[in-house]
Amino acid sequence: MNEYRYQHCIVRTPSHSCLEGITTSAFLGKVDYENAIRQHEAYIRALEQTGVRVKVLPAREEFPDSCFVEDVAVITPYGAIVTNPGAPSRNGEKEAIIPALKEFFPEEKIYYLQNPGTMDGGDVLLIENCYYVGISRRTNVDGFCQFREIVRGFGMDAVAVPVTDILHLKTGVVYVGEGRVLISGEFIRRPEFDGFEKFEVPEEEAYGANIIRMNGKIIVASGYPSVSRKLREWGYDIIETDTSEYKKIDGGLTCLSLRF
Ligand code: GLY
Predict the structure, then answer these.
(1) Distance (Å, rounded) from C-alpha 217 to C-alpha 14?
(2) Ligand 1 centroid distance, CA of 125 (Å)
(3) Is 16 a catalytic residue?
């Protein structure tokens, strides 16, 4: 089967206010803004190395977490679904992404989740034709049901996976391709992921489980040697990029872009 060919990414420049981004990792210290910008530029170059064009949206100071554009929309093969982010300080980010989506999708291919349903895109993991959706502090059952109805209309499906210990589903499990997942923590024993070939990421490297597979390459966070080693052993072509400033505000590689 031919691999889906990604053509575009959308990212948003981090705002100075990202130092106040929501975090459960305050022990890692405050974001160094200049370094965050350097890392963001390197991240864009890593995306470009896979052959995509990257649209860079301007910083939005009123939304400290708005560089994490993945949470505000889910791009499917049939259209874009604007989520309804579950953190009150992030909810307004959904309005900010709509003009960018309209540059790529006609109005009738943009779908909207509604209150009381909430969802963060970080909870949405596509494996082949099925979305695995984390029911988390950010994504509720109503949001999941609305989402499932939309994707079923596309001939796709969605299943719910409880997320209790971490922020988002994709913080702890990501599909590599070829039936393989990188998986950590609470998801290792979840029955939804039985049947996949698993690399159980050691707890001290759990952040490294969040990778991007795009156009035959895999982008990984630098500093997680067991992940890089396993991916090379599996035969993948990897690109490492440093996202340590984003880790301080609970952001991973996937959170920083929309890819389609
Ligand atoms: N700081 C990223 C988030 O909490 O959504």
Answers:
(1) 25
(2) 17
(3) no
